[in-house]
Every structure is written in structure tokens, then in C-alpha cells.
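Field log, afternoon session.

UNIT: design team B
ACTIVITY: writing a sequence onto a fixed backbone
BACKBONE:
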């Protein structure tokens, strides 16, 4: 597979009480197009920091991030904003729906940043909402009238309506109960089956099983990698055991 993203000697540091804290250290990573890449590691290992650097949400201190052949780490903030709108979708643990807008307007607001309002766009939003289990009876409700799982599904529609080249997710099931989390993971699995490139940070084994590639970070470095078949194409129990063995080896 071709690389959709790759880094060269990526570094990210933060100043803490006058001291430099090195979170990502000379990291070389290739994200393959069509992969569901899961980033894992213990607390403080640099997982979310890496996700933000890969997605252009944060600039590296040193090193480069390439999207295809383009060095996005050299972009200005305005250029990065355009890049993210055109190429990236984001799903977070905190869902960040606009509280003063109903479900449908939340989705359309994300779409209209990139696309022009049209009957086709409205139809696309309706189709996607139904597909993730958000029926018409919920479209005029506000986020505080929905469950956490419903809000997250709306957030996923907002993230994918512009057909991003790559979908980034940071602990997307972290605040959900088991049933709602499973619904969200099924949506991610279906997207991956259709060729969506996904990069997801998680600390949860059940969530990580949905990926086909698991990267383990320790102290800002990649210390291990585990490859798996497409979810559902192998024995689930064996898949879980093999991933658990890998994580145990990594000191998870």
C-alpha cells in the first residue's frame, strides 16, 4: 500500500516550568493508505501528541510530516486549516457538537465549510445520519437532548461528510458505555471495510481489536508494531489473545 502520511525525525517538545519536555523523539512513521492504524501506549507516552502532529492540528518542534509528497509541517496556520478541511475528519472523546445548533445543522455546518449548499448535500447528510442510526425524529434535537452515543454518531457523520482522505480519532469510545461504544466501533469497522484510512488513539483493548495495525509508543518512541487481518475475517478469540500477548510484551 502507498503511504498517505509519513514523518521524518519528528520531534515535539513542550516547555514546563522553564524545562523542555520532549514528548515525541525523532520519530519515523509511515501511515499506509487504507489502513486502520491504532496508536497505543501507556499514559504520557505521546499518543495524542503524535495524532495532533500527524493531522496538522499541532506543528512539530523539529522534523517533517508529509501528506503524500507535501510537507505539511512547513505550512502556515492558514494553510493547515485549509488542509484539514479538505483532507481530514476528526472524532474525539469530547464530541464538541455546537450546543446552540440542532443535529442536522451541526452536520451541515461541517459540510458547508468545504461544499456548497445543495439538495445533493442535504440528501447526503440525511443518508449518513440514517446510516449511523440517527433517525429523522432526532434531526431537530439539540446535543443536550441526545445520549452520549447518539452525539458521538452525529460527530462521526460530521467528520466523514466531506469524504476525508484520512479520519483521525482520539479515544472515540472513551466516554461511552459498552453498548454505545460498540455501535461506534461498528461504524468505524464499516468505514474501514470501504477503504477509509483511519488513525485512532486508544487505551482500550476491545477498541484496538478493530484495527489492522497497532503501533505501540513508549516515551515518545515507537517500540513495537503488530499487524492483524481485517476485523471479522479471523478468529476473534485468537485475535484478542495475540494482541494481548503483544501488549504484554510491550509492558502495557
Amino acid at each position: 500500500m502507498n503511504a498517505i502520511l509519513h514523518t521524518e525525525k519528528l520531534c515535539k517538545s513542550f516547555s514546563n516550568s522553564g524545562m523542555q519536555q520532549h514528548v515525541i523523539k525523532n520519530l519515523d512513521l509511515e501511515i499506509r493508505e487504507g489502513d486502520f492504524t491504532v496508536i497505543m501506549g501507556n499514559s504520557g507516552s505521546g499518543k495524542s501528541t503524535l495524532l495532533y502532529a500527524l493531522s496538522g492540528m499541532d506543528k512539530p518542534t523539529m522534523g517533517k510530516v508529509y501528506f503524500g509528497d507535501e510537507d505539511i509541517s512547513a505550512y502556515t496556520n492558514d494553510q493547515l486549516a485549509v488542509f484539514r478541511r479538505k483532507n481530514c475528519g476528526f472524532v474525539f472523546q469530547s464530541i464538541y457538537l455546537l450546543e446552540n445548533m440542532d443535529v442536522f445543522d451541526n452536520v451541515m455546518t461541517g459540510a458547508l465549510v468545504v461544499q456548497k449548499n445543495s439538495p445533493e448535500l442535504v440528501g447526503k447528510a440525511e443518508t449518513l445520519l440514517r446510516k449511523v442510526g440517527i433517525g429523522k425524529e432526532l434531526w431537530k434535537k439539540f446535543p443536550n437532548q441526545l445520549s452520549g452515543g447518539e452525539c458521538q454518531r452525529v460527530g462521526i457523520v460530521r467528520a466523514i461528510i466531506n469524504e476525508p482522505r484520512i479520519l483521525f480519532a482520539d479515544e472515540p469510545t472513551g466516554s461511552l458505555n459498552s453498548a454505545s461504544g460498540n455501535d461506534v466501533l461498528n461504524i468505524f469497522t464499516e468505514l474501514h471495510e470501504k477503504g477509509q484510512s483511519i488513525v485512532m488513539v486508544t487505551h482500550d483493548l476491545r477498541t484496538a481489536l478493530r484495527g489492522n495495525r497497532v503501533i505501540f509508543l513508549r516515551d515518545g518512541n515507537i517500540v513495537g508494531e503488530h499487524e492483524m487481518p481485517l476485523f471479522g475475517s479471523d478468529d476473534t478469540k485468537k485475535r484478542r489473545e495475540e494482541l494481548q500477548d503483544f501488549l504484554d510484551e510491550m509492558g502495557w
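LOG NOTE: Strands lie at 3-16, 19-32, 36-41, 62-67, 70-71, 88-92, 166-170, 197-201, 213-218, 221-227.
NEXT ACTIVITY: expression trials, pending approval
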